[in-house]
Amino acid sequence: MIKHLLTGREFDLNAFEKLMDAAAMLKAGRGKANQPRPLEGKSIGLIFSKASTRTRVSFEVGIHELGGQPLYMDAGKTQMGRGESIPDTARVLSRFLHGIVIRTFKQSDVEGLAEWGSIPIVNALTDDYHPCQAFCDLFTIQERLGKLEGVKMAYLGDGASNMANSLAMACKMAGMQFVIAAPEEFRPSQAILDENPGKGTAEWTTNPDEALKDADFIYTDVWVSMGFESEAAERMRILEPYRVDMNAVRKAKKDVRVMHCLPAHRGDEITDDVMDSEYSIVFDEAENRLHMHKAILYTLFS
Ligand code: CP
Ligand code: NVA
pLDDT tens for residues 186-233? Predict the structure, then answer.
């Protein structure tokens, strides 16, 4: 039984396929009678140390639709913001809440909550991982193509980001071919590239054309992730050749689709004409956050 979602490694292919089935079931049933309510009588805390639109709103709405009560906490306005430790916070909140969804900086804080608390913990983004988003992205691909195995995704931009890490692991688990095009300064972690969670592959190149060749999907993320604002000017300069513009799109398969976890910085990592083109599926992808988050909670609480 899976208790937490901390890095994404908790789900093997078999568990992930069940998770996608749950997401499809919850999506098809949304708004209809007799939907599952595994969170009936339960309160789920959302602890956020970083900004959020999609993750916060989709979890709050999803928790409500599953019969539970969401409780949003701006971490800076809790005693954590004044230095109360993770072990103490975990032990106290476990007495009140039935689960915690947390967005923060340090991965070790998420894992500390799971270690010291006694309730399910969901990682809603750290500096290292964004598993909820990567799972949603694969569900979006599965919905479109009916398969994941053998599908090629080209990722252009910051290869050392939480999204690159989580997509690399999820794509490998699902048997996909994931190619990161990133400069040396923002190359993916070798440990992530070497990890072997399934039949898929993850590679790094500095050449966007190599990644784009025969790509079924192009993915990009902001060049300046939350918490890295002091590096903004340098990042913009170094990542410029990795912009997803129409020229990049034309180098992939004819029916390629473009994905982005959002928020997009239009004109930086992705151009307006790509974002608003027939190639873009970013808003379907965003909608699926709701269905996937409900599926994650359904899986942890059923
Ligand atoms: N993609 C994503 O996590 O969006 P938010 O930062 O708006 O939650
Ligand atoms: N890499 C981005 C993802 C935002 C959803 C960040 O961490 O800011």
Answer: 999 999 999 999 999 999 999 999 999 999 999 999 999 999 999 999
Neighbours of 150 (CB within 10 A): 12
What are the domain boundaries of the chain?
A: 13-129+287-301, 132-285
CA distances from 139 to 14, 55, 176 (A): 14, 16, 13
Q: Is 266 a catalytic residue?
A: no
To the nearest 10°, the Cα dihedral for 81, 111, 166, 187?
A: 70
* 13-129+287-301 carries CATH number 3.40.50.1370: yes
Q: Do 13-129+287-301 and 132-285 agree at the fold level? A: yes
Q: Which residue in the block uniquely carries the two structure tokens 């072997």?
A: 196
How far does residue 55's CA lie from ligand 1's centre (Å)? 5
Q: In what order do the strands lie in the sheet with 257-260?
A: 201-205, 177-181, 152-156, 217-220, 257-260
Section 253-280 average pLDDT = 98
Contact status, residue 278 vs residue 254, Cβ threshold 8 Å:
no
For 46-56, the pLDDT digits (tens) are 999 999 999 99
CATH level 2 (architecture), domain 132-285: 3-Layer(aba) Sandwich (3.40)
What is residue 40's DSSP assignment? T
Is 133 tagged catalytic? Answer: yes
Catalytic residue check, 79: no
Q: For a substitution probing ligand 1, which of 261, 265, 284, 292 has the most ligand atoms within 8 Å of its CB?
A: 261
For residues 57 and 177, what is the distance between their CA atoms, to the nearest angstrom? Answer: 31
pTM for the predicted model, two decimal places = 0.98
Q: What angle do CA 205, 213, 8 make, to 5 degrees?
A: 60
Residue 258's H or E segment, with its range, is strand 257-260
**Tokens 């019969």 appear where?**
67
